[in-house]
């Protein structure tokens, strides 16, 4: 008698959700990335009870067609890549086609969307993995995703959630990373009906002032090493402004927040002469390169990358930063952002 059986689809999605949706903040990151991938310029987030009770993301992006709505919630269904070659050049934040299916398998999810040329919006919902019919709905152009009762049907996962305040703080951090990555977009965040952030489209220094603080933004040094195939731009703390903890270190590789030991090490080296050993430099840096030079498909959450040539990446970051840090000391006025 055989003992092996294929798992039911809901269970497959719930297992995948274990990797993609660890907590409300990870669901929020996925939803905001989807909005940016859809070309949104204005993104607003409403949370209730740390995002567990409810999370709503409203965007003004390109929307989803009526016929695509059920596919948007299907696992491994994506509009972003179609071939291996696309995967290797993907410039979008998402491409795995599993976030909405995963979230829908562990929460009550509804998706309302309207493309600009449509006369009305369409709505679909997903509960316990089962999709409703697509029904007409009212909404301005764009997409609204509502996620309620996260982990209501996976009690083990729900037990691992921290306090409401902690989960909200994690959501704020996920929001801050995305808001810093796109200062050209407007962002709003509210929690339990109270507004917590409201950012108009602005330049990076202004956005950094709101997210990291005026003290950092006013003294921060411009980094602008632009070129092919790699460039490094952004703001780094003036040598005098450093934090004892690592909480203001934002590295974006091709627009995506990542943690990377190679780059972090290169940054520390560049600061070595100007920084006390137990202090950490604050920074918002954008490392941009040909997508073929970096593998982002290392982990389902895409928070780690692998550079094809990490040695040359280390040298590039070290030199770009050393130059930027040397300039203000050489007496040149910092260039405007
Ligand atoms: P991925 O982002 O990897 O493609 P997702 O499960 O996150 O997978 O989303 C599935 C698909 O649903 C996307 O490829 C996209 O076509 C569509 N989609 C999701 N969110 C939005 C949104 N806010 N606006 C427009 N389309 C969206
Ligand atoms: Mg996605």
UniProtKB/TrEMBL annotation:
Gene Ontology terms: biological process: mismatch repair
Record bears the keyword NADP: no
Source species, domain of life: Bacteria
Domain DNA mismatch repair protein S5: 208-326
Gene Ontology MF term list: ATP binding; ATP hydrolysis activity; ATP-dependent DNA damage sensor activity; mismatched DNA binding
This protein's UniProt keywords: DNA damage, DNA repair
GO cellular component: mismatch repair complex
Transmembrane annotation, as ranges: none
The keyword DNA repair belongs to this UniProt entry's keyword annotation: yes
Family listed: Belongs to the DNA mismatch repair MutL/HexB family.
Protein task: This protein is involved in the repair of mismatches in DNA. It is required for dam-dependent methyl-directed DNA mismatch repair. May act as a 'molecular matchmaker', a protein that promotes the formation of a stable complex between two or more DNA-binding proteins in an ATP-dependent manner without itself being part of a final effector complex.
Protein name in UniProt: DNA mismatch repair protein MutL
Classification of source organism: Bacteria, Pseudomonadati, Pseudomonadota, Betaproteobacteria, Nitrosomonadales
């Amino acid at each position: 008698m055989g003992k092996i059986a294929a798992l039911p689809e809901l269970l497959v999605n719930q297992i995948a959700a274990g990797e993609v949706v660890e907590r409300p903040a990870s669901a929020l990151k996925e939803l905001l990335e989807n909005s940016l991938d859809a070309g949104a310029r204005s993104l607003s987030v409403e949370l209730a009870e740390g995002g567990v009770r409810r999370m709503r993301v409203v965007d003004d992006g390109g929307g989803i067609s009526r016929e695509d709505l059920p596919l948007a919630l299907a696992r491994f269904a994506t509009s972003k890549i179609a071939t291996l070659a696309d995967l290797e050049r993907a410039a979008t934040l998402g491409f795995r086609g599993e976030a909405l299916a995963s979230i829908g398998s562990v929460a009550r999810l509804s998706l309302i969307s309207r493309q600009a040329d449509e006369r009305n919006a369409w709505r679909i919902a997903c509960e316990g993995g089962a999709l409703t019919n697509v029904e007409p709905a009212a909404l301005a152009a764009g997409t609204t995703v509502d996620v309620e009762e996260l982990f209501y049907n996976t009690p083990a996962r729900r037990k691992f959630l921290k306090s409401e305040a902690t989960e909200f703080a994690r959501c704020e951090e996920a929001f801050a990373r995305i808001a810093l990555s796109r200062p050209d977009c407007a962002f709003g965040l509210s929690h339990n009906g109270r507004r917590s952030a409201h950012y108009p489209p602005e330049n990076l220094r202004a956005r950094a002032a709101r997210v990291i603080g005026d003290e950092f933004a006013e003294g921060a040094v411009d980094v602008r090493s632009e070129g092919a195939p790699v460039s490094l731009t952004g703001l780094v703390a003036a040598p005098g402004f450093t934090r004892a903890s690592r909480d203001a270190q934002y590295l974006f590789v091709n627009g995506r927040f990542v943690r990377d030991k190679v780059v972090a090490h290169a940054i520390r080296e560049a600061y070595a002469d100007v920084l006390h050993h137990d202090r950490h430099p604050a920074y918002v840096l954008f490392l941009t390169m040909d997508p073929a030079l970096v593998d982002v498909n290392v982990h389902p959450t895409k928070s780690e990358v692998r550079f094809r040539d990490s040695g040359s990446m280390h040298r590039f970051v070290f030199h770009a930063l050393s130059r930027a840090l040397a300039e203000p000391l050489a007496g040149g006025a910092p260039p405007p952002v």
